[in-house]
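[Meeting: bench + compute handoff]

Bench side (C.D.) handed over the final construct sequence. Compute side (W.E.) agreed to return the predicted structure before the next meeting so the bench team could plan truncations. Sequence as handed over:
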Amino acid sequence: MSTERDSNGLSLIEFYRGKTLLCTGCSGFLGKVLVEKILRCLPDVKKVYLLIRPKGKSTDINGRMKKEILDSPIMNHLKEKIGEKEFYELAYSKLEAVAGDVAVPTFFVDNGEVKAQQVIDRLKKEVNVIIHSAATIGFHERLDVAIELNTFGPVNAVKFAVQCENIEAVAHISTCFVNSNTKSGTKIQEKLYPVQLPGNEDIEDFCRRVMAMTPAEAEKTSDKYLKQFGFPNTYTFTKRMGEILAEKHARGRVPLAIVRPSIVGGAMKEPCAGWVDTVSAAGSVYLFVGLGILSVLPGDAKCVTDQIPVDFVVNAMLSCPVDVNARYKRLGEMYRVYHSGSSFYNPCTWQMCVTGVVNYWRMHPSVKAIAPAEFNLITSSWYYNTQFFMSYTWIRKLYSLLATWNKSHAKIAETLIKMENRANIMKKSFAYFTSNEWIFESQHVNDIQQSIVPAERDIFFLDTKMIDWNTYFNWFCYGLHKHILKEDPPLPVTSNVVSMVSTTYSSNMASDINFVYSASGDFTRNGVTTARRELMQTVMNSQAVRYEITAEAHRSSVLEAERRAFGIMDRMFADPDHRVVRMLSWTLRKVWRRLYQSININSEEVYMLKQLASQVNKKNSDNNDGHIDGFDPSSMTHPPGPLILIPTHRSYLDFLIISYIFFAYSIPVPHIAAGEDFLNMSVVRNIFRHSGAFFIRRQFGDDPLYRSIFAQYVQHLLMDGCPMEFFVEGTRSRSGKTLQPKLGLLSIIVDSFLEKKVPNLTIVPVNISYEKLIEGQAYSDELLGNAKKKESLKNLVKARNVLGNKYGDIHVKIAPPISLADYVTQLRSQDAHLQIPRKSSGVEEDSSQNNENESQESNERSDLKDRQFDPFVHSHDKNILVRRLAYKITHELNGASIIPATSLVASIVLAYRDGISLDELNRRTEWLKQLIVERGGEVSWVAGDLKEGSIARHSQQSFSTSAVVDRALGLMSDVVVKRKFMIEPGVNSRNEHKKFIQLGVYRNQLLYLFVKESIVCCAYEQQVSKLEKDASNGADKGVNVQDLLTSCKFLSSLMRHEFVKQENPDDNDNYDAVLDKMIQRGIFIKNENHVQLPLTSVETHRFMCSLLWPFIESYWAATMAVLTLLFTGSEKEQLNSVEENVLIQRTQWLAEKLFFEDKIHFYECCSLDTIKNAINTLVTFRVLSRSSRSEKKNASEKLPPVPHVHLLPPYTEMDKLFGVVQNVQNYRKASNKTLHDMMGAASRKSVFPFSPKL
């Protein structure tokens, strides 16, 4: 016989291989999930007999098996996976129905010509495992009936098991609440609790005596014994006796697993999230809340409710027989009790339940609902009765009275009577459980979870710590909505963390306090972090820091160097305090409600993060195998390391949002890299420091001691398992698009892995998308050159007026995590060290220069080809790793973007800035949404007003385009106006042109999806313009493909600092593939080696161009400003040289001047961010060179170095530099004025449109 336990632990697949099972209760909710699990996950089971009770005179139990089990929708997922024909072949090869009745002593019954004894004789030779779950689940069944099924049912199952020749285990499915007669708050152990009957009457004799009573006598006995023993209902009482008698008859004969589920609810994952096909237990409460039938119940919202998803229970039903059999063989134990519940490891309060249920039904109301969802638990009986009267009784009495006068009210009165009766039934059934709490130890099931072989832990998951309750209640209600009400609601994949774990009243202070104390405020999973003072001493004593102190002591003294080191650490280090985190979260919770309608995050992504974080500090080697429940093991081959959170950086709120989400979901709160600017805010800096922020300079400069201290600090945080958060963009993106990555901090963090201080790092890119930025107006001022307001408490207080506005929604999207160890392995397999960064081909596309570059690259590769990529050893390889990783992170950040409707509307308004009708705006917004979706983008398509407390947010599919556009226009009312039925930018005077910049910030959120196609379209425009000037080239044929690709290559190179276009920055842009895709989409038509633009694509083409033209104009303005360097500088200083900041200001002044002279089309080209990128590109093209110079403040002191730029040969010559300007000019939007018109062909210097001495 194959063993169920290998050297690594229990294998359920191995245990059940070749086994025959007998299962009862399989036509019920729990049983059907069990059968589906066996068919899907235990393919080598030999046979499964399903005990089915014949109904009436029918003997067709196989027909009942097919109708109630095999044809059930629960099997649809398996049918889709393997095919319907293959499913039925599998089912009939494994399953067989047998006629039986758990209430009869023989367990089996005659069925037509098949006699019970024949079945018994056959099965007792075959059956190895019995799983008995049949029962009556009616809470108030008459006592004799409940005894027959719930007490003698398991006895009869055990008696048959004793007859079986090859029996290995019996699993009896009971309930955790068999001990609910104990005091509220009791911790219930996994053991049998005796029942002491009056006069020490034997339980079995008592049960037979009750069964011999008349129904009336049994009813009286029910009330008597329930009151005497304190049981809330006959279900729990008879289940308790059933356990005792089952163990009595199994003792010394057969291993018995008593499995006690708590309140069984819809599935968390299997066979699909939210699966439920019956209305029972808590599901009936949640359904009636959703229908508006139930709004109040007696109970205490602070009490713990033990609920468990059905798929966890089924995994326990399959796992416990394996465990009890193994313990019997190893230890001789004959029985074991297993609690399948959540209260011990992952307690959930009724308040969390109420919030999750109400929030779901309010966001996704049923069409069958008679009233909006509302649900409150009330502790005071007087107050409950009052609320019940106000909710049900008075209106029922009113309509009953009206019905006596007017028969038209009779139907309404009848409905209200049913509602009141239903509410009373709910009270009778559940008030006891909502008013009391018990903690059910579940150590035995947890032991099984640890014992299961790693490869099967994700198949037979048992760890209740993986349940996120907010997510679970969303899915449970979704299952009721879809499978019970038969409607088609949207998938509840997002959670709104603004209202998370609150009551239905968002202003309730008590709910906020309950929230902050129900979540975790820790900074590591085990809550242990090194104290700040101890960490400072550890860093001070590290070898690297001592080395730098010794080096610095040569210039001062050891004491002075140490004093400076402690000063650096005191200024830099965080001082985590979970109490402050709770206080900050309480405050933020209120702020979010004032500012935002919702902060949405995908619950499944949070769950994945929670699982990753849970692995970081585990010490048990069995658990540190890289296996994560609910996470695809094939995607991560190394065990996860400390989490490195890297969000997009659009707002100061970014790091607060991430910390708040982690706190709310009880994930360790990250340490955050913050700029020293925040140290100017006297109170805020302390709050941030206690919340995990550490403060660093933006530039370390020439300070090796500072860098060494920081590196050691980061290493020790990661060695403690602390999550860390920083922004790879370095600073906030004021333009709305993702900035080029900064490598410094990332390099230091990667060093912790390369120096083997930590075995791995798990890098998590997080995109935070805003419908409207709080800093939107400030950004437009800064992009136009106005000074940024410094961070200070005074300015923070002044900014409090933003709390009076609404800024729509925030969407938080977590990209797939990057295992650094896996990524290094991937780069090694790609020989990444041979991929030399591509050289610029310059601004003139000189082919000889290209050949020279290729020759140089070839020589560099030949020096490296004889070794492997190894960043642990070679600094060259480490630099490649950091650079590639930074761009991969940035690429993932773009890919995780959720584009708000404000971005779409702003893009259309800017494309038609002279005005567009509302109907046309709606049409083009819908059209743009389709373009985004076609390219794999995700759009936030929501509507509803922005008033505080508004909950008019249904499925995204239900929103009309006009409603979405109307909401977006409301959010952008400060920058967009409606004039005579036309929508246009709200620019009325010269001072309001900054609104174009603000609209550009909205628009730029979607640029990453279109940038390559926009480059192709602008290159096409340039080629068409070129052909139109030369009629002999045959413009009617279209544009030559190779000429077009050459133009694309130049334009892409020009924009290299503007956009992150691909994951690997050193790959050549493959515009052949981009063009082919555009041809497939019908944007271009290809005719041999030429392409043309069809009339049907003109709209798409012009829109694509409108996205890129503002950037091209900015670059053109920069090249025009660079012309002034020909007349700048002196031989004493340096010819053709100027301070870089002066050149930037000069470019911005020129762009604005030319715009108001109608020589530039797009005011957005005045943006400082784009101008700076243009200067960087000219440095990359070696038109300019950058250097720093220091001037003397006085005889003994120098001023800080100031960046300068100067022209490089051959661009010190007018014609060469003019050629650069002309090359960029060719790609601008067509204008009536040529470059020569603007500059003057006769004497360019004399008529240059501004003074070189600006």
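W.E. noted at the follow-up: The first strand starts at residue 5 and ends at 6. C.D. will use this when planning the next construct.
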